[in-house]
Amino acid sequence: MTYNQLARKSDGDNMPISDVLWVLLTLLLYVNRVIDSLSSDRIKVLKTILAKERLLGGRDKRGKFHDNDSNAGFDCCPTVLERISPLGGLSRDGKLLQLYRDTNTVQKFYEKSCAPDYSYAPCRFINQTVYESRCVQQFTYMYAIVKDFNVTQPFRVDYIKVKSGCTCKVLRERAMEM
């Protein structure tokens, strides 16, 4: 039934309440479906942003390049250590989480990332003519005070995904030419 038909019916005839309820229910279901599709698209975009940019509320500008520890020697895959204050994160099952924050409380974490030029780059000190290798970002899960993103529910303690290092992954031995 179109809007014009509804208007004509309401002018002269009384529309049965059951018809009005069905029209309203149909309209509500349609609006709900539209909102759900927009919400899922928004969550996909937010997950992508979070994966790429970490949805940071703040990042300590004094990121430190850790090429070596004084006693440990050199790493095959150098790292950068930063203190971050994210607005959100990912749970162990991939759900988007919002971190608790107010004027007096900001949750901060130390994040150890692959150095900018080394993410997915060949590992240092590995003979690339013999082995194919890549520097790969490692992750760990840390406790934080969170709630599910865009949901009105109380905050809880749960895990969020945090970068924890950069490791060398040897992919395969290259075939030797004779």
Give a brief rundown of this model.
With 178 residues, the protein is an alpha+beta fold.
Would you write up a description of this structure?
By secondary structure, the protein is of the alpha+beta class. It has two domains: 1-53, no CATH class; 55-173, Cystine Knot Cytokines, subunit B (Ribbon), CATH 2.10.90. The chain contains two helices and eight strands, in the order ααββββββββ. The protein has helices at residues 3-12, 17-53, and strands at 56-59, 64-69, 73-86, 88-90, 96-99, 109-114, 131-148, 156-173. The strands form two sheets. Strands 1, 2, 3 and 6 form a four-stranded antiparallel beta sheet that branches. Strands 4-5-7-8 form a four-stranded antiparallel beta sheet, with helices on one face. The longest helix is centred in the first third of the chain and has 37 residues, at 17-53. The chain is elongated, with a radius of gyration of 27 Å. The chain starts with a helix and ends in a 5-residue tail after the last strand. The mean pLDDT is 78.
Per CATH, the class of the largest domain reads Mainly Beta
CA-atom Rg in angstroms: 27 Å
Average pLDDT value?
A: 78
User: How many helix segments?
Assistant: 2
> What is the beta-strand fraction?
35-45%
Q: Outline, from the CA principal axes? A: elongated
CATH homologous superfamily identity of the largest domain? Cystine-knot cytokines
CATH architecture of the largest domain: Ribbon
Largest sheet: 4 strands, antiparallel
Order of helices and strands: HHEEEEEEEE
Low-pLDDT residue intervals, each spanning 5 or more residues: none
Q: What is the tally of beta strands?
A: 8
Portion of residues in helices? Answer: 25-40%
Instruction: Report how far apart the termini are.
Output: 79 Å
What fold name goes in the CATH topology slot of the largest domain? Cystine Knot Cytokines, subunit B
- Tell me the domain tally: 2
Structural class: alpha+beta
Protein name: Spaetzle domain-containing protein
GO molecular function: growth factor activity; Toll binding
GO biological process, one term: innate immune response
Keywords: Disulfide bond, Glycoprotein, Membrane, Signal, Transmembrane, Transmembrane helix
